[in-house]
Design goal:
The chain has 534 residues and is an alpha/beta fold. The chain folds into four domains: 130 residues, Response regulator (Rossmann fold, 3-Layer(aba) Sandwich); 165 residues, Alpha-Beta Plaits (2-Layer Sandwich), CATH 3.30.70; 105 residues; 104 residues, Homeodomain-like (Arc Repressor Mutant, subunit A, Orthogonal Bundle), CATH 1.10.10.60. Helices cover 59% and strands 12% of the residues. The chain has 24 helices and ten strands. A five-stranded parallel beta sheet has the order 2-1-3-4-5, with helices on both faces. The protein has a five-stranded mixed beta sheet with strand order 7-8-6-9-10, with helices on both faces. Helix 7 packs antiparallel against helix 8 and helix 13 packs antiparallel against helix 17. The longest helix has 23 residues. The N and C termini lie far apart (96 Å). The relative contact order is 0.05. This is Two-component system response regulator YesN. Pfam families: HTH_18, Response_reg. It comes from Paenibacillus prosopidis. InterPro entries: CheY-like_superfamily, Homeodomain-like_sf, HTH_AraC, Sig_transdc_resp-reg_receiver.
Length: 534
């Protein structure tokens, strides 16, 4: 019998040393592969059948323990030998618990390495003999849940026709455990939000935790159903039984409530469970489409179990007179009152079941239109005020639920009304502008850039600044630059060329020209006449 082997070690000389010690022909090794990190090793495993793995433990891009865990999950027939410079018993114990066949210390004698490889080959041969007569059965046992999941996904995504004859052919072809008497209860789980900021990797881990918990709490016995990821943030549970069986809908609803409670407590998630009606396999795609539509339209109710009922199309228009009142409130009312009115309005719509995704989207559009109109009347530039990352994220997610919409409402109303109030106190705006100019006097300061700092139209800011200082924006910047240049000329020994740069002029000749215009003499002459240091 022949074997294929891989050596995984981040030290190139260690890999080459092992290769030179091995007599491949004597050991019956027809394929020898090398990898210097976990990623390279996984790539080789995906393309080759590896019988034996010689692996280091400590590697900079992932430990040998991590690689062994992955190999045991994806390639359980591979025998692993650790070859390491660590004699720590803790490492050896953990390696053996993970299924490592042998544990050798560097530097290893060729005879000991050969002995370990022979031992691995003996284990491989014995396992092959045990499984030879039932290979196809073992393969089915290993992959049956994936095969069943693929069957349902193909059916739901219309990759397979929803036709009883075509479905029966696939069932027989892939040995799917479905009989003519089988009937199914689909339950869609929709994650509506995570109550904790998560990295992408953490979110994936929690999604698998949600899946495992659904299998345990809702299905119970895995032979009675399956749970799998349908889309991002969506799981589908399919419970199976024979037709005529007592489904115990109350028990199913209780299990879903327990599941929601567990997810709230342990997995930082708000979600809903949507129960379908019992269907035959050919009816599953249509039923799941209905459940997904219910999830899309559920913008008001969270952490609830929703028994099946026929979808009702809601086509209730937004009450525009209400927004006329809102526009008036923005101009005359307090922030707290405006927010309270909107909360009450949305709550009433939700309680009367007159709120779905379409209505919430309409609300969002009209609400923002009123806010933009309000900002326009105060000459605040909305695209600048709400151009920050937090605002963009809130605007993007507001349509998902009433909770998200109210988060946006509070953010927008507070920010818009606070800034509008500041505009009324024009001296506050002028002070902000003056401070910004002083801190950035060496930069290219255009009217537009300065106006952006207070979210105002440049012409409106010019009027405010001129009323306060007597200067337009451009003239004020020049006067501040000349003022600072005069101080530097008379109170320091800094070269005039550097002074020009420090007050925002990259061309010395241009600085000299501007300075002479406003000081009525050149910078050199000014320094000579008014210098106060020796």
């Amino acid at each position: 019998m022949t074997y294929q082997m891989i050596i995984v070690d981040d030290e190139i000389h260690a890999v080459e040393g092992v290769k030179s010690d091995l007599d491949l022909n004597k050991l019956g090794i027809t394929g020898l592969f090398t990898a210097y990190n976990i990623r390279q090793a996984k790539d080789i495993f995906e393309n080759e059948v590896i019988d034996i793995m010689l692996c280091d433990i400590e590697m900079p891009q992932g430990s040998g323990m991590e690689l062994l865990t992955w190999v045991r999950e994806h390639h359980p027939n591979t025998a692993t030998i650790f070859l390491t410079s660590h004699a720590d018993f803790k490492y050896a114990k953990e390696a053996l618990e993970l299924g490592c066949l042998d544990y050798l210390l560097k530097p290893v004698l060729a005879i000991d390495l050969e002995k370990a490889i022979r031992k691995a080959q003996s284990v491989i041969d014995r396992n092959m003999e045990i499984s030879r007569n039932s290979k196809s059965h073992q393969l089915w046992l290993k992959h049956h849940s994936l095969i069943i999941e693929r069957f349902w996904l193909d059916l739901i995504n219309h990759s397979m026709p929803s036709d009883p004859v075509a479905i029966r052919e696939q069932i027989e072809c892939h040995h799917i455990p479905i009989t003519e008497d089988s009937i199914f209860l689909p339950i869609l789980i929709g994650v509506q939000r995570w109550n904790k900021t998560l990295k992408h990797r953490d979110e994936k881990i929690l999604e698998y935790a949600l899946k495992n918990t659904a299998e345990e709490v809702i299905i119970g016995n895995k032979e009675n159903g399956i749970c799998f990821h349908l889309d991002q943030g969506k799981l589908l549970v399919i419970v199976t039984a024979d037709s005529g069986a007592d489904w115990g809908y109350n028990q199913v609803q209780d299990a879903c409530r327990q599941y929601i409670d567990a997810c709230n407590r342990y997995f930082y998630s708000d979600l809903s469970c949507y129960l379908g009606q019992t269907v035959e396999a050919y009816e599953m795609a249509s039923m799941v489409a209905d459940l997904k539509a219910r999830d899309r339209n559920n913008v008001a109710f969270v952490n609830k179990v929703h028994p099946y009922r026929d979808l009702q199309q809601i086509d209730q228009p937004i009450m525009l007179p209400y927004f006329s009142l809102l526009s008036s409130l923005l101009k005359t009312g307090s922030k707290e009152y405006v927010i309270k009115e909107i909360e009450a309005y949305l709550d009433e719509l939700a309680r009367n079941q007159g709120l779905d995704a379409k209505i919430l989207h309409q609300f969002n559009q009209v609400f923002m239109q009123v806010v933009y109109s309000y900002l326009y009347s105060t000459e605040i530039q909305a695209d600048k005020l709400f151009g920050d990352e937090d605002s963009r994220q809130l605007l993007q997610t507001a349509d998902r639920s009433v909770t998200d919409m109210l988060t946006l409402v509070r953010h927008v109303v507070n920010k818009a009304m606070d800034h509008a109030e500041a505009i009324k106190e024009s001296i506050t705006v002028v002070q902000t502008v003056k401070r910004y100019i002083a801190l950035n006097i060496d930069q290219d300061l255009s009217r537009e850039l300065i106006a952006e700092q207070v979210f105002l139209n440049p012409d409106h800011l010019t009027r405010l600044l001129k009323k306060e200082t007597g200067y337009s924006i451009s003239d004020y910047v020049i006067m501040e630059r000349i003022k600072l240049a005069k101080e530097l000329l008379t109170q320091t020994n800094i070269p005039i060329s550097l002074i020009a740069t420090s007050v925002g002029y990259t061309h010395f000749s241009h600085f000299t020209k501007i300075f002479k215009k406003y000081a009525e003499m050149g910078p050199t002459e000014y320094r000579a006449q008014f210098r106060t240091i020796t």
